Amino acid sequence: MARVVFENVGKKYGKMWALREFSARFEPGETVSVIGPNGSGKTTMIKCLLGLVHSTTGTIMVNGETVGPDPSYRHHVGHMPQISRFPNELKIGQLIDLMDDIRGKDQGRAEGPLVRDLGVDAMMDKRLGTLSGGQRQKVSAVLAFRYAPSVLVLDEPTAGLDPLSSEILLKAVRDIKRTGCTVLITSHLMEEVEALADRVAYLQDGTLRFLLPPEELLSATGERRLSKAIPAMLINHTRSHVESL
Amino acid sequence: MWKVYKYTLIDLARNKFVGGWMLLLLAISLGLFQLEDQPVKAMLSLSQVLLALVPLVSSVFSIVYIYDVMEFTELLAVQPLRRSKILGGQMLALGTALVLGVLLGAGIPLMLFLPNSASLTLLLACVMLTLVFVAIGSLIAIKNREKARGVGLGLVVWFLFVLVYDAVLLWIMFAFSDYPIEPWIVPLAALDPIDLGRIMVLLKVDLAAMMGYSGAVYEKFFGNLRGILIALAALTAWVALPSSFAFRAFQRKDL
């Protein structure tokens, strides 16, 4: 059974469709890079999956459960947003306690993936309002990985992180993937896409243009790098041809 | 819901604005009781200030706070939590923090200088108005994406209730003074929560001249205690209705 299924999902804001007839299946243990220009519908697609945005058309299933008002499917979902802001006056430790409380998982604050690797254990008493952008990303990453998700959604995870932390995070993605977790990751960095992705989903103007393994993209375009192959793919192939692949 | 409530309250407890609000109320209350020789007069002046200031601060602070924690609300909304529990926890925490501000800031001086049922009624009216305007503020913040627009709307609503509506009521009273419109004033005054608070207080204070038209009508129609209970019931409806609209809007909102 596919881990995540999108069926004809569309989202309309006012008169504009931010996402149109998006259909895709994501399997256990695969990492899918979602790429596309700004405003192409990546974030809308992710927000529909997370239940933050209500889709106008279609349905989404996660582990066989429909995404809707019942929040129980989110027990298995981890999310690291592009920008995180937390209540200024709470301490990192308190935020982690709150999340543990909500998830009903009683583990030590300093336990769990990434806490020590990213140095978050040393910052437990720091107020969230005093954190830099990169430190907030680290806290976000810790929360996303903390509850053994079977679906992990990462929105530009390494933006704002130092190179060492980025590397630690990407290693954690590779590790969790081995446990059968489905990872959806948006990124503008082609090196990241090449390093992680089993398949690449390209969105443009709210429409899925293709969803293919990187090797197929490279061989179809005769390019050696994804950063070249993707524009070539868009220029050289008509949409119908892409769909027939 | 109690988890969200607890941690929102911890955040609010350290919020400088909430502390500042309490200190401001304390300064105003103590100042007025020091200035006036008669505690009743001080209490009446204080009631005028509180009935205007409590709704303003409650609604604007709720609006600003809900905008400020929106990203955190998103983080909560991707957890296995129902949205109604998230908003319920946040609104309840806002209500608790602001009510505590009123009780400590204005309640302590009132109980020290004028410990009677009129002071208690004033406090009760302020508590109810705090809850009403937390509900109205939350509804405004959820319905509008832009913070500046939300705050502006909050100010407009406050201005309507604190001044404009009363003026309109007065105008109606004069314009239709030849007709038996008194029964109409009861439901019309109930459409303004600040008026309801004012009526509650003035029904308890033995100064008919201060009661105002709608207050006099309430007393005439219901007598003291019944008038207060009816005003209280109407204020409860003023908490419940905007809250239920806020919950419905939050359920449908795209975050």
Structure description:
The complex is a heterodimer of chains A (245) and B (255). By secondary structure, chain A is an alpha/beta fold. Chain A has helices at residues 42-50, 92-103, 133-145, 163-178, 190-196, 214-221, 226-236, 239-244; strands spanning 4-13, 16-26, 31-35, 57-62, 65-66, 77-80, 151-155, 182-186, 199-204, 207-212. In chain A, helix 6 crosses helix 7 (226-236). Chain A is globular. The two termini of chain A are 22 Å apart. The mean pLDDT of chain A is 86. By secondary structure, chain B is mainly α. Chain B has one domain. Helices cover 86% and strands 0% of the residues of chain B. Chain B has ten helices and no strands. Chain B has helices spanning 2-13, 16-35, 39-68, 70-77, 83-113, 117-143, 147-175, 182-190, 193-204, 212-252. In chain B, helix 3 (39-68) packs parallel to helix 6 and helix 6 (117-143) runs parallel beside helix 10 (212-252). The mean pLDDT of chain B is 87.
